[in-house]
């Protein structure tokens, strides 16, 4: 394995950490409706749990309302039950073959709690990126120990990995600030 391979591997794994963080942020409810909020809700479908997106079409009607249109009429009740029992605090209303899911307004206390959750998720993502940096640096040290690269190459590689880490952590901080702004917007 070469220095460039280690850098490429670290970069792709750091990108995956940021993608996972973005998914975690998408699940955190702001006052606005967006179709992705129901992505992690599991519905019982012929005996096995599946994501709601596989059994229904989720669309945004307006800023505070989602429309869930099941592909099969028999799925209205199970979908309604799954949304109600999810940790999102939503109360769907069945309307014949579809259902509306109004987004309740967030209280000030709930907004503060959500911001704490966002910061916690952000810190977890930063820890993941730093762990990847540590692994990459250990790989570089092993190459030096095995006399495959020089100490100068190791130093340059560590500098590059540190720059990459700083860039990824700045991206995480930017995502945190953006999500806080969404949460605080009334």
TrEMBL record:
InterPro entries: Ribosome_recyc_fac (IPR002661), Ribosome_recyc_fac_dom (IPR023584), RRF_sf (IPR036191). Its main location: cytoplasm. Pfam families: RRF. One of its GO terms (biological process) is cytoplasmic translational termination. The keyword Cytoplasm applies. The keyword RNA-binding does not apply. GO terms for molecular function: ribosomal large subunit binding. GO terms for cellular component: cytosol. Residues 22-184 form the Ribosome recycling factor domain. Keywords: Cytoplasm, Protein biosynthesis. It is found in: Cytoplasm. Belongs to the RRF family. Responsible for the release of ribosomes from messenger RNA at the termination of protein biosynthesis. May increase the efficiency of translation by recycling ribosomes from one round of translation to another. This is Ribosome-recycling factor. It comes from Orrella dioscoreae.
